[in-house]
Amino acid sequence: MSATTLSPPRPLAWIGAQPLAVLLAFAVLALVVSWSAAPSLFSSHDPFLGLTAQKLLPPSATNWFGTDHLGRDLYARVVQGTWSSVTSALIATLIGLAIGGLLGLASGFLGGWVDTVIGRLIDMLLAIPNFLLAVVIVSAFGFQTINVAVATGVASVAVFARLMRSEVMKTSTAVFVEASVLVGGRAAHVLLRHVLPNAYRSVVALAVLQFGTSILTIAGLAFLGYGDPPPAADWGLLVANGKDYPSSPWLVFAPATVIVVTVLAINRISRWIRHAA
Amino acid sequence: MTRNTSLSQAARRIGQALVVILLAYSFTFLIISVLPGDPISNMLLDPENGFTEEEIAPIIAHYGLDRPVLEQWWMAISRFALGDLGISLRSNRPVSSMLLEALPSTLLLAGSAMLVALLLALLIAYASQNLPRRWGQGVARVLPALSLSVPSFVIGLVLIQVFAFQLGLFRITQPNSLAATFFAALALGIPVSAQIAEVLIANLDHEAGQEYFAVAQARGLRRSQLFLRHQLRPSALPVVTMIALSIGELLGGSLITETIFGRKGVGSLVQSAVVTQDFPVLQSVVSLAAVVFVLVNLLADLLYPLLDPRLRRRDTAARDDTAERLA
């Protein structure tokens, strides 16, 4: 769309040309990734060590997010919980992308009765409320963060399948695809060379958006206590633990703010991919 | 001729809806009763749960747990089709009567949430068109995206913290009071309102770019009339679609909202069924949620031609064109 899509002569100039909000969003994402990669680098406090003398302290220079009911440093807990919160959302997104993508591809490319069958399957997945579906899967397979991730992924299959199907169908009717078929291109060639490359940008944008949505869903499931039990520190679980101490609102607001800022950043990046990248 | 095709089309849609309901029931059955290796017997036989032999035998007979899976599935689905939802493993009562008890409170909550969501969405959409461009419209346009980034439980907790604890407008110990119900509905409705508002704003923008809009503007119509007649009315269909689609979200969201606000309802019934592994309750709630979702969307589909004269026209090209734009 914009001039920036052409190969940039200087990477620095290209970065400088992006909107400030996008750069900020990438900075937030980089911070979150580093939190999950090396939590100990970012906090000198031990996330498991409680000092009862220092319980429920408000945020200060030593305890940035305050301390919880056992006197643990909340910032250290948030940083420690990043890995499982983010990785499970990533797993969920990949499951949805893989299964949904394949279903949508088959449905849109093959058409006919395959399309009809997969279409009804997608309708079925859409008809069961996502959150309820995830809840049922977790309760059948056990309260663990990994099950929460799988459940969230399965619940998001329909969205991916629907988008992939419509993208594939849109491209399949394009003149250059018709031409490729007419000059004798085989199905696999047409698919890999023409159809997928044209579908991929909107699918990637959806995957990034869904990554943010998955963080929210997983936080909700962890909030209800369906993930790993404490002392795990999933963001949703931290909020759930904090809500029992209404006179110490930072126990809710600090982890909640981290969730919101992360998801906002991810959504902004998704929009950037859709429009500009 | 037209009448016939639209009738057969309606019949086809109803057939599809039935298939989807059947699939949804079977899928839930697969997850709950087959994949984890029969959790019902696992739970019954777990000595920690303290079921005696005499208690277990009738339950196993009722669900046919000693029979092949396909036979169990057939028993379950024919019962469901006849309206028999089974018996709770925990309270030993029919699931249907437990659901009937829980339903009014959730219907009230979900209904008010939908109302709140619609009003908020309309307000935001109006602001996005008619406020001063830079600050007013900008804020109105950012608001939906912002509230879609906030977990719904955080919205509920913030409302409780501010309006119950700080301002004392309602008491969390009286979850069924008018004020508490209003704030619970607000918590459940805000994410839905954001989705409706996003769709609505996109459609209002589209209408504002049309030539007939410019003509109406040139005729000197007032802002409010311009908005109602030439922007809002043509955008009604996507809004109906969004409302129908968000039914599922309201049902799923009531789980969290009812837990946070301490209300008794279908959501809290699910929550306790999950904790106590009461699978007949889960199976019923999930499949009924799917039934509700399918019926509401079917209704919306059948309503479109009544709402939009363009869909009543005989030439199908225009109809397809409109349908495509709405999708």
Keywords:
heterodimer, A: MetI-like fold, 12 helices, B: 327 residues, 78% helix, flat
Describe this entry's structure for a reader.
The complex is a heterodimer of chains A (277) and B (327). Chain A is mostly helical. Chain A has a single domain (29-46, 70-263), classed as Orthogonal Bundle (MetI-like fold), CATH 1.10.3720. Chain A contains twelve helices and no strands. Chain A has helices at 11-17, 20-37, 39-42, 74-110, 112-127, 130-141, 145-155, 157-172, 175-182, 187-223, 235-242, 250-275. In chain A, helix 4 runs antiparallel to helix 5 (112-127) and helix 10 runs antiparallel to helix 12. The mean pLDDT of chain A is 87. By secondary structure, chain B is mostly helical. Chain B contains 15 helices and no strands. Chain B has helices at residues 2-34, 39-45, 53-63, 69-81, 95-130, 133-147, 152-166, 178-208, 211-218, 223-232, 236-245, 247-261, 266-275, 279-307, 316-326. In chain B, helix 6 (133-147) crosses helix 8 (178-208) and helix 8 (178-208) crosses helix 11 (236-245). The longest helix of chain B has 36 residues, at 95-130. Chain B starts with a helix and ends with a helix. Classes of the chains: A mainly alpha (277), B mainly alpha (327).
